[in-house]
Amino acid sequence: MAKVTVNGIEVEVDPSYTILKAAEKAGVSIPTFCYHPRMDPAGSCRICAVELEDSKRVVMSCVTPVADGMKVLTESPKIHDARKTNLELLLLHHPLDCPVCDCGGECPLQNMSFAYGATESRFESHRNDEQEDLKSDVLIFNANRCILCGKCVRICDEIQDVHAIGFINRGFDTIIGPPLGKKLDCEFCGDCLEVCPTGAITDHFVRYKFRPWQLEQHQTTCTNCSSGCQMHVETENESIVRVTSKEGLGPNEGSICVVGRFGFNHVQTPQRFDTPYMRIEHRLVPSSWEELLPELANRLNAIRRKGTDRVAGLISSRVSLEDAYVFQSFFRRVLRSNMIDTGARYGFMNAAIPLVEATGTLRPLVDHEDLLKAKVILLIGTDPVAESNITGLFLKRAARKNRAKLYVVDSEAITLSNRASDHIRINPGGESLFVSVLTEEIVSGGNLSDEWLTRKEELFKNWNVDPGVYQRLVNDLKTAETGILVTGRKMFRNENASLSMVNLMKMTGALGWIEKEGCGILPIPETANDLGVLMMGATYEWLPGLLDARNETSRKKWENAWGTSLSYGSGGGLNQILQGIEEGKINALITMGENPIGHFPAGSKVREILGKLDLIVSLDMFQNELVDMAHFVLPASSSFERTGHFVSVEGFVQKSVQTMAHWGESLPDWEILEKTSLAMGNPMGYESSEGIMKEILRFLPDLSPSTRNGEHFVGGTGDIHLVKPVDSTGFSNPSHVNEPGNISRLSFEMPPHKANRNSVSARFSEWNGKTQPVLDAVSVIPGEGEFVFSMTKSLFHSGKMTLQDPNLKKIQPEGKLRINRQTARKRKIKKGEKITLSSIHGRCSFVVEPSPMVSEFELVFPEHFADSQVLALFPSEIAFSPETGTPTTHRIRVSLSTETVS
Amino acid sequence: MTLKSLLKSVFFTEIMQGLKLTFTHMFKKKITVQYPHEKLDLADGYRGFIVHRRYENGQERCVGCDLCEAICPAKAIRVVGDIHPEFPERRFAKEYTLDFTRCIFCGFCVVACPVNALSMTKEFAHSSFTREGLIYSKDQLLTLGDKCESESIAYLKVRNMWGAEDSGKDEGRYHFPPISATQSGG
């Protein structure tokens, strides 16, 4: 330890610390421009100058390591002069256009000039007069205002690992921008925009539309994916102007992805429903809640009296815990029906059911911090950067900075493939075979039977798996000190996904990763609250708390808790609901942000089946196919308009708060259901979302809110840094927070977010004994000249909902079919051309985008843009998985032709 | 009663004293002005109605920077900034409303304006039968500014805000890429 005196305050710090960090520990703030706690110091702005008392030298505190006995002065006449001169030099070429600069009012350079009084310059020079770079649709680079601190370039390199911008030219001519004067083409995360201390980087969406002092800030949770990012939503007159973050805020540590940062405008577009609609004589007419609810209640009551399980419900997995809880309560208590299902059924259920069976919980064993400590990470069937951007960021950091061995098993090259030590580009269709062989290899300890050996041979021969790489992977997995298996959407939407998940869990168990701290399996949920909605029992299998809904004892438990008798039927999921409707056993359907028609091809007759219903009630924000045939369309609030809790991929239960005014007459989902139940004469008695959360916590106390608070810099001007934990809303704030010198990540008295390893491993060993590794067959085999067509999640959209977003529509306006670049060249297909795909079920034409990332056997399309024409490629017969009830057809063999269909 | 006071009341001395003042005023210059037939000459620094100004080439000066809104103590000003429809790199005020029913004519907004787009005039007698009639839009303010251009320049000169206009130098004058010294001259 080194003893350092900062302004007379003596602190003992690690010798690896810089003077800046030591000063923070002493509670002394030093102004900075180019310093950023998550990145390596650069020492380029020269504003953090401090004086060493003994040698009278001026050094840069952000790059100078401490020495024992060092005496530092952060404020002295010499330092004041040095900083003032430095500001004069920075302002020499800086244009004085603060009044029209979007940064004016929150600009550290402005604040520092104000603080140090650098009003006049002793130097004569010209002002920079570069043209603004307006080429990009998202970001604007203004070279005149740039002070070349390099934060944007470094955050793009070190944190995002995208390398989209850099320094161009040298000396006075240096500017920041994308290479070769091209249009910016990157992930558009906007982190550079966030860290820029001046107005050199601004964005098109809110350009010139606001002034920072007019905005009101609300800290909330992003509900676009399962990362659970904490962000600041800034509003003016209760409408959202922009979304920002703060360094170190929340589990995302201040980074937000493109969807979170720019995708907020769909909630305030005129296309949104602002009044309830009722169908009168085949036409939807605007109505009011007072007029509509009694009518709806009457019709629901009439159907309810016919018996149990007469009303089916589908709920999106993007809603909050409160909404999901009230939804299942409404169905089981009021409508006496267990015919409920969630949006997780389309994919995540394939992981959820095996996970709950094996571990008894949906909470993950590992979180993002464990990813940073892991030595070996196996990524299988997932693209974390697109699915859960922050998981992707942590993986990038683990592989790049912490030198974790990263193995990627995927047909497509994903963003993380660049950082992978090995990428097994398995041909599409062979994933499940690969998983089963790998599992058998590990479970049996390498003693494969002849049957398995032939399968392994087949893997090497036909599926593009390199034996050497495979062996390396097996060895690394076996010898890994700590290892984590990450899996996600592509795995869940595999044809044999639930079996593969069982195999992966067996493998994790055989490697000993279930018992070992820091090891485990991290399934990335597909949407913001997959975990939470399932924990709330919004599916026919489970009651809240993941208790079996059809088990008599667990039903009794909830009967006691609610003080009512539960007399719902045996229930069923999506499959049974569609069957029941067709057979006439179900008369009504209530959907909450779900549209089953949009998921299935027209040939599957889902529309016709739903047409047999007596009553369709759709709670939604936008028009869709189901709304067109619904009898009641009820405007639901977006997540920006209500308070709710969401469970993130790491298991944090985080609060999302109301930031904007209610849109028209829209109401939160729970309130609509509560009002309906009241009109039905059977009120559930929920008054506020706080009340609902209180009730949830009374029965399920382990869901109490938790979050990770990173290091967070506060200061009067935004440039003077001191480490303090984030004062987050709604979370307990221990008393030692404000003690100076408490630099390490403060341990809050937070409920654990991860699964309890002891109880999980006990349950797992019992499950492990019962199940055997399953042989998975090869799922899709493309024939000669054929491709496998699949759909993935795009980085620039969250769901179909964000297609309505003007900002995101500008970034990605249409879905393009990605095809292997070599294949495209061979077939003479150029970018932007139209081609036609035909499967045995139908044809559809696409605009092509050749990409080096896609393998030569596959064609990839972003699922958000999959309309009925695209879905026509899929078989009309819907197949459901016998184990988990999920639809199994997500990929299809297609052939390609360059002629277009009319 | 003394003799002195008796004489005072007999000869109406006090009344004569008072009338003396009255009669002297008959020979002095008249101060009362027959408003509205006659009008006073107001000083150049008179803080009358606020107007919007233009450059010599007819371009409106306002850049929609919101500083007047920020400083206004009566919250009479509302500015909505946006991208200029013709020049994508310029900021302009999409909406600008000045509520003269709230305005206290303190002149802070004129001081805050970085481009001398605002000035005060000698206009003071604008009236309306409705409140809305006194909420001026940008177009109204510009029309008024065109009418009273010399007055607005005189105000800025007498209030020491004209220096940057005359210096012709880059320094001291706010240099905006949208409206630079050369562009504003025409």
How would you briefly describe this protein structure?
The complex is a heterodimer of chains A (902) and B (186). Chain A has 902 residues and is an alpha/beta fold.
Structure, described:
The complex is a heterodimer of chains A (902) and B (186). Chain A has 902 residues and is an alpha/beta fold. Chain B has 186 residues and is α+β, with helices and mostly antiparallel strands. Chain B has helices at residues 3-10, 13-26, 67-71, 108-112, 138-147, 149-158, 163-167, 181-184; strands spanning 50-52, 77-83, 91-99, 118-120, 135-137. The termini of chain B are far apart. The interface between A and B is medium-sized, with 18 and 23 residues.
Q: How do the strands and helices of this protein lay out in sequence?
A:
The complex is a heterodimer of chains A (902) and B (186).
Chain A: E1 2-6, E2 9-13, H1 19-25, E3 30-31, E4 49-52, E5 58-60, E6 70-73, H2 77-90, H3 108-116, E7 139-141, H4 151-159, E8 166-168, E9 175-177, H5 191-195, E10 201-203, E11 216-221, E12 230-236, E13 239-244, H6 258-262, E14 277-280, E15 283-286, H7 289-304, E16 311-315, H8 321-334, E17 339-342, H9 349-359, H10 368-373, E18 376-380, H11 384-387, H12 389-400, E19 405-409, E20 422-424, H13 431-443, H14 450-462, H15 467-479, E21 483-487, H16 489-492, H17 497-510, E22 520-523, H18 530-535, E23 542-543, E24 547-548, H19 552-562, H20 574-583, E25 588-592, H21 606-611, E26 615-620, H22 625-629, E27 632-635, E28 644-647, E29 653-656, H23 669-679, H24 689-699, E30 711-713, E31 720-721, E32 723-725, H25 757-770, E33 787-792, H26 806-811, E34 817-820, H27 821-826, E35 834-838, E36 843-851, E37 858-862, H28 868-871, E38 892-897
Parallel strand pairs in A: 1-6, 16-17, 16-25, 18-19, 18-21, 19-20, 21-22, 25-26, 26-27, 33-37, 34-36
Antiparallel strand pairs in A: 1-2, 3-31, 4-5, 4-6, 7-10, 8-9, 11-12, 12-13, 14-15, 14-27, 23-24, 28-29, 30-32, 33-38, 34-37, 35-36, 35-38
Helix pairs in contact in A: 2-3, 7-23, 8-23, 8-24, 9-17, 13-14, 13-17
Chain B: H1 3-10, H2 13-26, E1 50-52, H3 67-71, E2 77-83, E3 91-99, H4 108-112, E4 118-120, E5 135-137, H5 138-147, H6 149-158, H7 163-167, H8 181-184
Antiparallel strand pairs in B: 1-4, 2-3, 3-5
